[in-house]
Design brief:
alpha+beta
Length: 93
């Protein structure tokens, strides 16, 4: 991915004990500069967190990209040897 100075990037290893969906929420919180709570973000409204954890819970062959919008930002998950999480603010239209 091309670096974006407004984006927040994180790497996620499949061996992690923390669910990927939790790391996605932490990445969004870092981008927004605020704590993400159930009142400010219900991830399930934008993407099924259990499905996300299951999809990326096992090694995936080839390159896989998943992109969705959540809390005024675009989240992209890119899989190669690890999972890269990128959260980017959506510009006001």
């Amino acid at each position: 991915m091309c670096p974006n100075e407004d984006a927040v990037y994180r790497r996620y290893e499949l061996s992690s004990d923390q669910p990927l969906s939790d790391v996605v929420l932490e990445t969004i919180a870092e981008l927004k500069g605020e704590e993400i709570t159930e009142e400010t973000c219900i991830l399930y409204n934008d993407i099924d967190p259990t499905g996300l954890d299951l999809l990326f819970g096992e090694p995936i062959a080839g390159d896989t990209v998943v992109t969705f919008e959540c809390v005024d930002c675009e989240v992209t998950l890119l899989v190669d040897d690890e999972i890269e999480i990128r959260a980017t603010p959506i510009p006001d239209e």
